[in-house]
């Protein structure tokens, strides 16, 4: 393992001004997104859509440090025959790959899941490295509800994340460690804070036991937000302060960067809250984005599967990338948001 090289990639992935595009929707998820815009989820349509994102030159060059791909995409070629991985690299961005095989029901834990995909992972990592990946992603899902999460769900998912991260580093790939505490439900912001703290503390304990080098990884957590159906929602400033407080209590300063998921927040909420955190400052890591929905919703709606709409979709994607890039610097404002749109 070359820790200096891993640290260099992890630092580049979370460099101020830039963030990560999560374009690793699995077959079922991309179908859901395409259904919403009336587009059939064929291999060609998925390629065309993702190619339009990766060829959004200004956004990719200026604001997107890395792209998380799905297994199909890392093997795909653009319409002109160029591998999509090369299109991403030509834009100065780093290709990465989702390597988990999804969240499956956890036995004897109703409503809870364990992310699978460890069997044969070493061999798959070797292949992905040969295909051009420099980093990987594994997402664990923690649900909040009556009586959950359980110790079993948190421990099993943290253990799997640590085993995945160690295998990645063994193969000189930077692991993105993503323990997502879902915002589905009517729980309070206090409950999200308590569950996220429990989850992160368990994850870092397991990373230590698995001998994962913190300098060579990126954490992808949720922000501390109330459940989407909670009657009491919270201002951005409170979300920012609570999130920073939890991170300071759980994440060692050796971790170079933290890249948030958007998790179902609106596009502008995800931007405003990232900006609010970077305005507070006073923490040892770079705080950036690794958004899927909050970067892609606008371009998907603008595209709607029509070639004539490609420029409009690229403009929509570039706008969100620019706004989030400013948020990593604490330089986004609602006025810029409106003016630039
Ligand atoms: C892009 O969505 C990712 C893949 O989801 P599935 O495996 O369910 O298809 C997802 O892991 C994503 O990378 C993160 O959750 C961040 O995306 P959001 O949309 O929450 O910012």
Automatic annotation (TrEMBL):
Gene Ontology biological process terms, A to Z: glycolytic process
InterPro entries recorded: Aldolase_TIM (IPR013785), FBA_I (IPR000741)
Pathway: Carbohydrate degradation; glycolysis; D-glyceraldehyde 3-phosphate and glycerone phosphate from D-glucose: step 4/4
GO MF, any single term: fructose-bisphosphate aldolase activity
Enzyme Commission number(s): 4.1.2.13
Enzyme type, top EC level: lyase
Catalytic activity: beta-D-fructose 1,6-bisphosphate = D-glyceraldehyde 3-phosphate + dihydroxyacetone phosphate
Pfam families linked: Glycolytic
PANTHER family named in the record: FRUCTOSE-BISPHOSPHATE ALDOLASE
Name of the protein: Probable fructose-bisphosphate aldolase class 1
Species the sequence originates in: Methyloceanibacter marginalis
Organism placement in taxonomy: Bacteria, Pseudomonadati, Pseudomonadota, Alphaproteobacteria, Hyphomicrobiales
